[in-house]
Fold these 2 entries.
Entry 1:
Amino acid sequence: MENNNNLPEPDTRPDVKDPSRRDFLKKSALITAVALTPAHAVKAAEKHMDERIAEAFEKMPLSLEINGAPHNLMVEPRSTLLDILREQLDLTGTKKGCDLGQCGACTVHVDGHRVISCLTLGIMVNGKKVTTIEGLAKGDQLHPMQEAFLKHDGFQCGYCTPGQIMSAVACIREGHANSEHEIREYMSGNICRCGAYPNIVNAIQEVKEGGLPV
Amino acid sequence: MNDKTLNKPSSTTGMSRVDGRLKVTGQAKYAAEFNVKGLTYGVLVCSTITKGSIRSIDSKQAENAPGVLAVISHLNCPKILGYPAEPAKAPIKIFYDDKILYNGHPVTMVIADTFERAQHAASLVKVDYNEEKHITSLKDNLNGAVAPHDDAEYKRGDPNAWATAPVKVEQEYIQPSEVHNPMELHAIVARWDADDKITVWDKTQGVKDTQSNIARIFGIPVENVQVHSKFVGGAFGGALQVWQHEVAAIIGAKVVKRPVKLMLTRADMFTSVGYRPLTWQKIGIGATTDGKLVGINHQAIGQTSTYEDFAEGPADVSRQLYDCPNAYTSNKILSLDVGSPTWMRGPGPATGTFALESAMDELSYLLNIDPIELRLKNYAETDPESGKPFSGKNLKDAYKMGAESIGWHNRQQKPGALTKDGWLLGYGVSGGTFGADREPATVKAIMLADGTLIVQTAVSDIGPGTGTMAVSVAAETMGIPVEKIRFDLGDSALPNAPQQGGSTITSSVGSAVYMACNALKEKFQQLIGNGGADKPDYAQVLKQHNLPKLEVSVDSKAGAEVDKYAMYSWSVHFVTVLVNPLTGVVKLDKVTCVADSGRIISPKTARSQIIGGAIMGIGMALTEETVIDHRYGKVMNASFADYHVPVNADIPQIEALFVNKPDYNINPLGAKGMGEIALIGMAAAVANAVYNATGKRVRELPITPDKLVDWGVVS
Ligand code: FES
Ligand code: FES
């Protein structure tokens, strides 16, 4: 993180914001007020106040475990898991390649299963365990799949790589790595524009055949 | 590692990437991942019309939305000092005037304190336009093409000699526009450190170029701009210039007085950061009955925008690929109401080679000669264009190696003669070539007291493995283990290096690293005095002389050899394809790519680069095409769901073979580039294999099933 700046820092770190009960009641009252007095609401909307009102109750609590550590956050219901990881928690290992569920760059594990984090709202993983690429190695000891990607050069630019590795681990866990053909099919949700596919297949096969736990 | 291993490396041959660990652990930070203090988020609103002007912008609702800090457009944009001095034909000057020049032209930018808020507020901006009639179709307007510059035409002998030859082919070929689509979306984080000081974390193929361009546009001294770009998630030519979104983010940061992060959407990537231009080509090629070329006539018309004259010269390949006494090439451009195209992997030759190598294949069938034999009959021993000898050309070796690997002797000359598991099987081949340039580069090498070597230069690495190559060269030259070497790159404060484009980095930067290491060794020799070991214990020597470090900075550039030789890298692509006789689906069965690009420095990354280029070439051959609905002038398939790049299931194992003969006429390393030749020729190889399998010649890429099946003919 860069720090040499004297500009004001907005507090967008969600961890610290704990909604007090009173705050919640205030917001609830606001919702009720809007609901019961449509005339006021309309007037507010005319004055473009609707956005301001929305702001008052737009965050929700989210408790989850990320890479083994518990997090209690306040997030907007519209925030994707991907943006929460990258923009709020500085876990930028998970990549954005399309934001539309079409490339696989944002693949993470939720309760051990591969999930496209750009199509997952943060609030959908409340109470779940999320593993990102940052949580795959055990300290300095790389996960066998990370080792295999290094050894077989399963990447060039490295941007699709976290997603590929998370998918590759899941691919073996799911039992979908029994042949080269099967690996190719079950890894086709992860695009690599650098074209590392044959090397990725080699890496997965080696890990699968090595029999180490993934 | 013996030479044989380098001819045919496996995925585990040689050293692994020096930055690989950072990439597999998610620690490598790309442009958008620098969450600097006080960060805000910019989201662009782009035009929904194709040509015209902005009548009004209603941004009140957006301005009122929570977290919004500014809505910027031409109506309120601060004065950009360098804009007035930009030439008439220049990249889009964002927020400069009310003109709309293409569908997707950025009109406003919303800045808010979170990404979600900026994105939502952007949806609230209402823009009204005065719409004008647009023209976006190349095919309907070929007559309007013009020569972009004086030397767009080339003549050798009689331009029409081909037409009177005993055997001739005359055909048109279409290369659709293709998008680079690197996995990393173009992104920038921009910060003003003072009124005249800017720092950016940016996706760029050249930190020095980006630095000087930003300085020019904003009218501040070059040294006041800092550009960081240590990791780049692919680019393929798409990040060789400063695009309007980069300027927008810098403007935004000035307005809100806080850093701005701007990441394009995948849809923006199809309109706002260039693409390979849609190009129409016509080739006339004539030969004697025994297959000696008489003449080639190759004309190309590529699309460009109305605001820039982008020309890549696809026809030029026909000047020098074959020994042919008569040649004519012309490259024209046609201005359309579209965003500007730009350099994309193998720019020019990729498009031109598809046409020329398809035409050569057509000729081989007319002559009933094996396509390789036809190529060898017309093999150019010296450069037909300049008459100069080649600095190094071992293309015959490449044909031989590739033919053996793919099993070319099993090919049948008669199309449709072979089948495999009920699919039609065909063999295809194509050559490829790209100029082997060497650019000026400066490298600093510093030996520290603990024996660590630091090597520095301002190059970017978009993926091929520049650091790995540089560390390999340094380790070998200095005689120290790679673990003792650190390579610094991607920072404009470092010594000058060229942009990572045009397959020049190993030749330019690799040579500079080699020279800097030799200069450093020389300095150690001077310390030790005569007769010291060539590769001494550097730490020991420093200790003996009580020195904290020893450093050199070396400038390097191409030598006088550039005037003596024609310098190129070469490749040959071999494929076998399977075509489903009922559906017309094409599958790659086997792929072998042979590179004749001098000495191989880093076998593992070289192999990956060849395979990666081949895969992009397979996309070009079979699936990739940007489709514009000309009624609206809009790209209709601006997403990965609709524009198909190859996925894992499309790609078989690929053999990457290397001739691995050093070319010391180019540089002291004997190494030449291979990023472009990896792709150039692949589309023709696939098209030629499809013909061999089916008897159907597809002259308009991509080769989609509908072009092969007219129910009943393929059976
Ligand atoms: S970013 Fe999620 S699938 Fe592309
Ligand atoms: S490594 Fe660059 S996209 Fe896969």
Entry 2:
Amino acid sequence: MIRPDKSLLYYPRMPATWWLRKWSYFLFIVREFSSLFIAAYLVLFLVQLYQLGNGAAAYSTFTNSLKSPGWIVFHAVVLVFAVYHSVTWFYTTSIVIPLRIGGKEIPRAAFTAINIAAWIAVSAVVFGLYLLQ
Amino acid sequence: MPEPTITLNVSRYRPPDERVPTSQVYTIPYRPDWVVLDALNYIKDQVDGSLSFRWSCRMGVCGSCGMMINGEAKLTCSVFLRDYHPREILVEPLENFPVIKDLVIDMSDFLDKLKIVKPWIIRETEKPTSEGEYLQTPEEMDAYMGFSACINCLLCYAACPIFGVETDFIGPAALALGYRYNQDSRDEGSNMRWNVINDHHGTWQCTFVGECSVVCPKDVDPAAAIQRLKVDTAKHWIRSVLLPWGKRA
Ligand code: SF4
Ligand code: FES
């Protein structure tokens, strides 16, 4: 293979703002950053478990503190990112694990819809159990 | 009535005189049945013979005419002027590659990567011709057929920001071809591809932006191939570490 003279090549540089150039790139970055919000929530969840180990009084003081407007906003923001992350995750699953019925691969959108329906059903059961407690 | 015209704003790079690309504007007759490649050939033949670009088949087969058209990676023989007229068309070399001249990119790095993926059928032992062909069921063909349509046009590399940031990434087309041969029931060479596929610059560098599959003119779906390679690589790792006696399934 004949290779060009490297000293004469022009090497383009990727601008730091590449993720603003296309909507799909922007959505990708949002999906990546959504992990940070989910990680932040998990830290809070670990603290919650820790407080559970400290006894009923400590736990209820902690959960009461979560009722402040700041924490409610935090949970709402995390929920939005968690839902977005989960939906993209289900879509990814349909690509990674093609589902075949009768030898034919079912459309990815249908597989994603099945996953999301199952997710909503499980969430509804968990919410129902919470209401019943 | 004056003849309708269309304007192409074309990236020029003429080393050693120029060390950074510039742009040149050409206003040429507008023909709705022309593709962008026809317009570039008109410029080369009638206006400015110094303009350099690659092309060959003019029918979306050879994969050599890929360029950025208004910022999107396209085969210039497959996009019509009428899709842009009366707007100006910005023509640039494929993104993320070094530029040799004007619209011609250096693809030698890709060709090196392609070679190390070993995109051909590898047999441990060849069966004698007297025993006939290697037969496949329709299902066995389905497993790889969609991934075998690659024309090495490199649009997927131009659309991949991960490759733009980290040019050592083996990238969509080469990995998709690795997957295609790993999936082929006639192939016995997947063990020889794992070290490349599983390398830091292999599948794991992909963070699944997914644009490679969007721009692919042959619907190869390299993003799916790479995600499935991740699963296969993980299974391969489990087999090789936890079950050292394990063989390829
Ligand atoms: S995978 Fe598609 S976009 Fe990438 S080189 Fe092959 S044909 Fe072109
Ligand atoms: S000229 Fe061959 S693909 Fe465009």
